[in-house]
Amino acid sequence: MNASGTFRTTLLATAAAAMLLTAGCASTLPTADKMQINPMGTVLTYHRKSSGSLGNFDGQVVWTQAPATWQGKPVISSGAPQAGVGLHDPVSFGLMANLNPAGQPLMSFEPPIDYPWPLQVGKTWTVNHTVTLYPSGNKLPLKVDGKVESFGDVTVPAGTFRAFKLVWSINQNEFETRWIAPNNGLATIKRHVERPASHPQGAGVLDAELISRVLPTQ
Fold this sequence. Notes:
The structure is a single chain. The chain has 218 residues and is mainly beta. Helices cover 11% and strands 57% of the residues. It folds into two domains: 1-29; 33-214, YmcC-like fold (Beta Barrel), CATH 2.40.360. It has a twelve-stranded antiparallel β-barrel with strand order 2-3-4-5-6-7-9-10-11-12-13-14. Strands 1-8 form a two-stranded antiparallel sheet. The relative contact order is 0.17.
């Protein structure tokens, strides 16, 4: 083989190796093992627009994260004067309970409502929860069926993030699409919720997207 032939053979081999490497990278799916927890004092501001059974509102909702306790155990409180308070597991950030704006319990969830860790595109999940309603103490079943639909860029006023897109239904009569970036500590970047007329509380629509995140000063 002459020098020209040797060069062509080497070039082809290099190109083939590059193609294999590229194919290998393309087949590696993004994963997220857990939610990174924001430091206490973090403030997340969203624009929310909702109607019908999800409440008539069009404006900013400001959530502040702070330490709290629930049933004698430490939790993370994420509270907004406009929407009330969510109490979250301090490790997974799963939702344990909701309080009204005055701090009174509305409902709690067993087990906590959480994302299906580890996240990977194509993963599906079904979880049955028990909801305790306060102050009556009545307990109701809640079933969540969901799928991790995709991973990619999502742009909101706060910027562009690499995010998982999750879709799920609650008791087959409330449907939500949510974009999250666990590695950035963002449990919600953008969300869309729909309730049909058959929902027990009637039809409703909610859209929200992140405007800003402000971390506490050190």
